[in-house]
Specification:
Number of strands: 27
Strand order of the largest sheet: 22-26-23-25-24-27
Order of helices and strands: HEEEEEEEEEEEEEEEEEEEEEHEEEEEHE
CATH superfamily of the largest domain: RlpA-like domain
Distance between the termini: 206 Å
Helix content: 10-25%
Shape: elongated
Radius of gyration: 56 Å
Structural class: mainly beta
Length: 394
């Protein structure tokens, strides 16, 4: 039994040795084969793709509204609170003036910094390059003297509806504070800021107006017909007296607005310039009816007693005649035209013969309105209204 097992073990051992030897030869052969083979090429490592440069963008021209750059006004232009013409104005940028652009032009507007405030200007009026200043002209030269072509009103604002702060006479001059805008020039007038319509101004000197009949201050003016002297330069102001035809007063000012300021019996008054003349005026001829003695006429008896007043201005009477303040005529509400009346002042007894050619007076309590000439025959025009009796003359 022992020998048989020993023999088996021996065979197994020889088999293992044989397998090991064969394996070793195979391994050696592989090593030798690798030694004589062509050297292996080194393995290439793929490199990362090189970045492709982006195409260069085309350089756009610098717009007028380039942020942070100065922009210049090509003309005097409004600076507004928002990017719309309906927004409030916060100032004016004159031609050639410059501001800093806060943004590029958007929607036709450029956002700018104007006197420390953010504003908007229409981009079409802006330039990136400097702009030449406008050349001064006659009435648009700021700080220069401008002369009045005729007597002109100086107003508080640039509108004809604003208050008047004075009058600049023909050839008078003031300093222009701004260029003409909207037809008006801003000026310095007697220490105040005012506005004058530019069409009445000139940069060149203007010849002074020659003195004329009713415009020569300090000269005598004569009444072409009996005329009312008023307290102010308006027909609605109070009457302070009557200047008879050919009467004269001293003019205190040139004619303005159709009125001449005069010195009348030591008082300042106003007379409509159309009734005044620088030349002497002939006194009115005595009216034939007035020259007739009132005591010699035949009357039909008393027609009544009432208050009588007078009037001294008008153009045409109710019957179509040309009005004359010196004529011996009167107005009555209903009496037939051509009727002659003897009018007597109840207080003084003085009488005058008048002819009815007009209608009036339309004041309660009054029945007759005499011309100034007729009224002055029976009472002073200063009394205004007197009590009279009147009779029809045959």
């Amino acid at each position: 039994m022992i020998n048989t097992q020993t023999s088996g073990h021996s065979r197994s051992l020889r088999r293992i040795v044989a397998i090991s030897a064969a394996t070793g030869v195979a391994v050696m052969g592989s090593v030798v084969e690798q030694a004589h083979a062509a050297p292996a090429q080194p393995t290439k490592v793929a490199s990362a793709p090189k970045p492709v440069a982006a195409p260069k963008a085309a350089v756009a021209p610098k717009p007028a509204g380039q942020a942070g750059k100065l922009v210049y006004a090509t003309a005097t232009v409004n600076v507004r609170a928002r990017a719309t013409t309906s927004s409030a104005k916060i100032g004016m940028l004159p031609r050639a003036g410059h501001v800093k652009a806060l943004s590029a032009s958007r929607g036709g507007w450029t956002k700018v910094l104007y006197k420390g405030k953010v504003g908007y200007i229409s981009s079409s009026y802006l330039s990136h390059g400097k702009v030449a200043a406008a050349k001064p002209s006659a009435s648009r030269s700021t700080g220069r003297l401008v002369y009045a072509k005729t007597t002109v009103t100086v107003r508080s604002r640039a509108t004809t509806s604003s208050a008047k702060i004075g009058m600049l006479p023909r050839a008078g001059h003031v300093k222009a504070l701004s260029a003409s805008r909207g037809g008006w020039t801003k000026v310095l007038y007697k220490g105040k800021v005012g506005y004058i319509s530019s069409s009445y101004l000139s940069h060149g000197k203007v010849a002074a107006a020659k003195p004329s009949a009713s415009r020569s201050t300090g000269r005598l003016v004569y009444a072409k017909t009996t005329v009312t002297v008023r307290s102010r330069a308006t027909t609605s102001s109070a009457k302070i007296g009557m200047l008879p035809q050919a009467g004269h007063v001293k003019a205190l000012s040139a004619s303005r607005g159709g009125w001449t300021k005069v010195l009348y019996k030591g008082k300042t008054g106003y007379i409509s310039s159309g009734y005044l003349s620088y030349s002497k005026v002939a006194a009115p001829a005595r009216n034939s009816a007035a020259s007739r003695s009132a005591s010699r006429v035949t009357t039909t008896g008393s027609l009544g007693t009432c208050k009588a007043s007078f009037y001294g201005y008008g153009y045409q009477t109710a019957n179509g005649e040309r009005f004359s303040a010196s004529a011996m005529t009167a107005a009555h509400k209903t009496m037939r035209f051509g009727t002659r009346l003897k009018v007597t002042n109840k207080a003084s007894g003085k009488s005058v013969i008048v002819r009815v050619n007009d209608r009036g007076p339309f004041v309660s309590g009054r029945c007759l309105d005499l011309t100034t000439g007729a009224f002055s025959r029976i009472a002073s025009t200063g009394s205004g209204v007197v009590t009279v009796s009147y009779q029809q003359v045959r």
